[in-house]
Amino acid sequence: MTILVTGGAGFIGGNFVLDWLAGSDEPVVNLDKLSYAGNLQTLASLHGDDRHRFVHGDIGDSDLLDRLLAEHQPRAVIHFAAESHVDRSLHGPGDFIDTNIVGTFKLLEAVRGYWSGLPASDKAAFRLLHVSTDEVYGTLAADDAPFTEAHRYQPNSPYSASKAAADHLVRAWHHSYGLPVLTTHCSNNYGPYHFPEKLIPLVILNALAGKPLPVYGDGQQVRDWLYVTDHCAALRRVLDAGTPGETYNVGGGNEKTNLDVVRTICRLLDELRPRADGKGYAEQISHVQDRPGHDRRYAIDARKLARELGWQPAETFDSGIRKTVRWYLDNQDWAAGVSSGRYRDWLTQQYGDQP
Ligand code: NAD
Ligand code: DAU
């Protein structure tokens, strides 16, 4: 048996592949375009491991998808590939439409073609797991109840609108064609191998480099932080036991304001890597212009996943953020490769012309 992962050189997909192969010998075919966010250094420990087959390609390439599905006969597809950064979607939404909407459509069509031709028992067992986001639900006021799976869709950014569109396609392919899909909506992930355009890795690396720590607006926006390996465990659980056609929210139960998150990182760095001048890292905090249309609060009600599939996060925010800060301190080579752009040479460095 084999699984096909899309976007497995990104932050969550990379963690998922590492986690999967740490706990199972079931091979992974990993299809990734290596956009600016794809980083094969994340998967360096799998070099030479026959269980991991990396394929450099685009989910929008239908011929490639057809070939991979026919050749590897996966029992499941886990779909991470996306343009994922809200700020980039504000500057240039085109790539978000191409990958998140059109790419997902191409994937659905290829998977539908493959799945239709499977023998009955394989067809019944097959799953497509689509990794979506809590951002499709829009924003919450301070006293609103957290998002349940029944919350209405109110996406506010080009990114979240493109993810919402993809969700609707996935849903329709289940209702119209019977494709056995599962959709998850997770909150903000954090942990190792996180690209430093996102708040937590950006703040850690800027702090260490003596740069300002940019906090948008008043810094009172709230996110619900989920440690990435807890997310990976939830995805495995949904894949194993989720009901086709159902959606599942995944959250860490860790609502924090952005300013709290930044101050927590500063305190940890003060403890683990104090500044040479004896001052605190919080001195580097700098309030900058707010993100246009900035969603004020996200919070996830993950009780369905707990009740039906028995999943609970293992990390608290305190334990997860300490691990994360430590990871960046211990893996400065990975971070330096990203900051310098060296990570983009990794494909040819590591694999030559034949990844
Ligand atoms: P990421 O930006 O770190 O990684 C995305 C990966 O997809 C990269 O490796 C990139 O090269 C690849 N990719 C992009 N376009 C592609 C294409 N056309 N074909 C093949 N590969 C392509 O993203 P992430 O943070 O790991 O997020 C993974 C998924 O989880 C996304 O679908 C995202 O919407 C969703 N999500 C992320 C978070 C979060 O906090 N990071 C939270 C909720 C949902
Ligand atoms: O909620 C899930 C979403 O979480 C995912 O769907 C997205 O793919 C993922 O990028 C993330 O989106 P956010 O916009 O919440 O994450 P980001 O790390 O960009 O920002 C987190 C919060 O911090 C947000 O309120 C904006 C703020 N911020 C961000 C940056 C990069 C700052 O204040 N300063 C910054 O420099």
Automatic annotation (TrEMBL):
The keyword NAD applies. Its EC number is 4.2.1.46. It catalyses: dTDP-alpha-D-glucose = dTDP-4-dehydro-6-deoxy-alpha-D-glucose + H2O. Belongs to the NAD(P)-dependent epimerase/dehydratase family. dTDP-glucose dehydratase subfamily. It holds the Pfam family GDP_Man_Dehyd. Keywords: Lyase, NAD. Residues 4-324 form the NAD(P)-binding domain. This is dTDP-glucose 4,6-dehydratase. The lineage of its organism: Bacteria, Pseudomonadati, Pseudomonadota, Betaproteobacteria, Neisseriales. NCBIfam families: dTDP_gluc_dehyt. InterPro entries: dTDP_Gluc_deHydtase, NAD(P)-bd_dom, NAD(P)-bd_dom_sf, Sc_DH/Rdtase_CS. It comes from Vogesella alkaliphila. Its cofactor is NAD(+).
